[in-house]
Specification:
It is built from 9 helices and no strands.
Length: about 130
């Protein structure tokens, strides 16, 4: 949404992303899980929701913002939501999956760190070989 709409929406969302990027990943994940409550679902969301992925998705969106297929949809009367949902979102996962694969070691360490104080997976669910 930030890359497609631009303007003040882009500045506000990327400002929030910058704030989250200034915090260490483990502290951010612990705060997120502490706010949502302990459990495997919340731990997975906290560990994989990375502000770096938001930055990469924005960069991908900016590259797809001006091509002809977007202009064609807009000339046919498509709204911003239709352009984002039908054209932009399907093009973004490839680069974010590559980034998540490269971050896998940090994700495993963060998940283990959440399990230690009891914020991660509850027994008998295994996580990280525990």
């Amino acid at each position: 949404m930030s890359g497609c709409l631009g303007g003040w929406t882009d500045r506000i969302l990327m400002g929030l992303t910058d704030i989250f990027l200034s915090l260490p990943r483990r502290i951010l994940a612990r705060a997120f899980v502490a706010g949502l409550g302990p459990g495997i679902e919340n731990a997975v969301i906290a560990v994989t929701a990375s502000p770096t992925c938001a930055r990469i998705a924005r960069a991908e969106t900016l590259t797809f913002r001006k091509p002809e297929f977007i202009a064609t949809m807009q000339m046919q009367g498509a709204s911003h939501a239709q352009v984002i949902g039908l054209q932009v979102i399907p093009l973004c996962p490839s680069s974010t999956m590559v980034r998540a694969t490269l971050d896998m070691a940090g994700i495993i360490l963060t998940a283990a760190g959440l399990g230690f104080p009891g914020l991660g997976a509850r027994l008998p669910l295994p996580i990280g070989g525990r």
